[in-house]
Amino acid sequence: MKSLIEIPENMMALVLHGVGDLRYEQVEVPELKDGTVLLKIRACGICSSDMPRIFVNGTYHFPTIPGHEFSGEIVAVGDGVDESLLGKRSCVFPMLPCRSCRACEMEEWAQCSGYSYFGSRCDGAFAQYLVVPTWNLVPFSDDLSFEEAALCEPAAVSLHAVNIAALKEGMNVAIIGTGTIAFLIGSFAKSKIGDGKVIICGRSGNKLDYAKNLGFDIVNTSEEEPQEGIKRITGSDGADVVFEAVGSNAAITNAIKSAAALGKVVLVGNPEEDLHLEKNVYWSILRRQITIAGSWNSNYNSRINDWADALKIFESGKLNLRGLITHTFELKDYEKAFAAIKDPSEFTLKVMFSIN
Prior knowledge:
The protein is of the alpha/beta class. Helices cover about 30% and strands about 25% of the residues. The protein has helices at about 50-55, 100-105, 145-150, 150-165, 180-195, 205-215, 225-235, 250-260, 280-285, 305-315, 320-325, 335-340; strands spanning about 1-5, 10-20, 20-30, 35-45, 70-75, 90, 95, 115, 130-135, 135-140, 175, 200, 215-220, 240-245, 260-265, 290-295, 325-330, 350-355. Strands 1, 4, 5, 6, 9, 10, 17 and 18 form an 8-stranded mixed sheet that branches. Strands 13-12-11-14-15-16 form a 6-stranded parallel sheet, sandwiched between helices. The protein has a two-stranded antiparallel sheet with strand order 2-3. Helix 12 (about 335-340) links the parallel strand 17 (about 325-330) and strand 18. Helix 4 (about 150-165) packs across helix 5 (about 180-195), helix 4 packs across helix 10 (about 305-315) and helix 7 packs parallel to helix 8. It is globular. About 45% of the residues are buried.
């Protein structure tokens, strides 16, 4: 083992002891093992999936330290690890696959049937330190801030969805939703379709204003049905590809209705309850031959690495990443962070913990 610091015995972390029972408290620093590094966490985003995980459904066991969108500095390496990693900045692919199931044999880690996951199935990065296998490290340039790099996880998820859509020049694209994933999907889609339209659909006025300032067309769904707005903007019977980035009955229904004949709907949003389709909506999938595709997590294999591709775009400076980060808080101010997310009058996209 080699270390840049004297590794402390304890650290501060946000620990989930039960549904809604999140505490800022002292815990032991995890033990460094062979083939792993100790990452000093510098930034960790609050994912939309963290909200039901913390306040509604809980994690897979208690206590758990949440947090899976993170970046940090490698301050110690275990035995068998290249010492040149010391001092490097890295974000982290948060999945820990079993490596023995059929999906793992194909390097389709996101479809692993026996995986663990930082922040839900095992402790994550709402903490000062985390031990990470070297395989999960995604190093990034010193020119990129820790906060921007922590967006790599939602960016990889978004890029994966865009790749599934197989966008082409001139296509019209609609996105149902106004969260971080929706804006990242829109940004990646815009770079692929040239003169085609990218339309953001939602009911949050301040987020729609933000979308308009970024150059997207918008449909305010509190004033107009999304399918009607999309037809108005495109001048056709719907969008060639619709991304659903909410996970609700209404959003999925609107996505299907907004797709043009022979179009595609890519489902990205995580549902919080059972979903039901009206008979006529289901029929419209059949009659208009709509393709429905699911998108889960990201590719991180020898053929496609959405993480590396997202970082290249980040480091090129082509995306306004700072604009997506609307709030930063210290871990000890976690109650303010979650209150901001829950407040419908507050303009939030990515709320992030900055950790020292």
